Amino acid sequence: MKSLKLCGNILTSEGWRLGHIMLEGGRVVALNGASSEPATNQEPYILPGFIDLHVHGGGGADVMEGGAATQTMARMHARYGTTSLLATTMTAPRAELAAVLATLASEVRQRAPGCARILGVHLEGPYINPGKLGAQPSATALAALDEVLYYLELAPLRVVTLAPELAGHLGVIAQLAARGIRVQLGHTLGSYEDGVNALKQGATGFTHIFNAMTGLHHRAPGMVGAALAHAEYAELIPDLLHVHPGAIYTALRAIPKLYCVTDSTAAAGMPDGAYPLGSQTVLKCVNGVRLADGTLAGSTLTMDQALRNLVSLGLPLAEASHRLSRYAADYLGLTQRGRLAVGAWADLVVLDRQLMVQATYVEGEKI
């Protein structure tokens, strides 16, 4: 089987190494070279491929269109360094969600050439608070275990977002956690206490922290306070529109494995204009995506731009990389992704000195 050798500043599991990495059969088979600070030479950076656990679309395609649209999305994001992702649904009636999930199952089983690996599904809604929809449609519902298990039969659910304060949801959290599904708290009007109780029941994260949840006040800490005080993991959208840099710094100090997502829509990678987001239409203008009333509606962010944004805020490149790859992999329990080590999947991104993508390798395939 043909092997491939890449040379540069490699961010390995042990730190930076100036040398070469060998890929074969979709895996990393060798790492050689000396420890080196990357600023001392002009070789490209070789980082673990980005892992995006919250993706609604890209390249003009929306996850809720199912099937081929998901491939279009995964192909577009791979061009920007994303090697694996979770296809993220929108709030919708049961029949519509079931139909979409049925089409996503085959995309998870078999990676299409030129595409990022679809690891599974992030079900964002319908189990959210109708008073904190954000850009979600209004087809909310209370979570019932039998319904979630029905969805699980249709496609591999890896993450479920819900509002913990709604009736019966604490019990559902415990049942889903027992089945290995990551439960995130989001689109919620819940209190600090609701968040803490949900974590005790097995919730493990927070969906786009700060956005679509109760904020921090010193006498009412809210869901943000629960995340900052108790979370090990939470996702954040670092497009510098959804969250002020000061709040990003706060979350970075408080949450050990804060990881970044794009929450990208069909408008990502596309010119300004109108695009689908589930049953709604969103408008892209410059780098923002909004509903007709001006509400932020996902993003146009790609993970390489997320990396550059973090570095612009002062994060060392290695730490920024961890927050775009390793921590997301750890969150899902993926020990062979999100890191460059012998035996791991050959998922990596090659960047020039300006942190622009030169190439993406997904399971050894050059994109």
UniProtKB/TrEMBL annotation:
Binds 1 divalent metal cation per subunit. Substrate binds at A135, N211, A212, R219, H242, L296, A297, G298. Pfam families: Amidohydro_1. Its cofactor is a divalent metal cation. The active site is at D263 (proton donor/acceptor). Keywords: Carbohydrate metabolism, Hydrolase, Metal-binding. The keyword Metal-binding applies. One of its GO terms (molecular function) is metal ion binding. Zn(2+) binds at E124, H187, H208. GO terms for biological process: N-acetylglucosamine catabolic process. The keyword Hydrolase applies. SUPFAM superfamilies: Composite domain of metallo-dependent hydrolases, Metallo-dependent hydrolases. Belongs to the metallo-dependent hydrolases superfamily. NagA family. This is N-acetylglucosamine-6-phosphate deacetylase. It comes from Mycoavidus cysteinexigens.
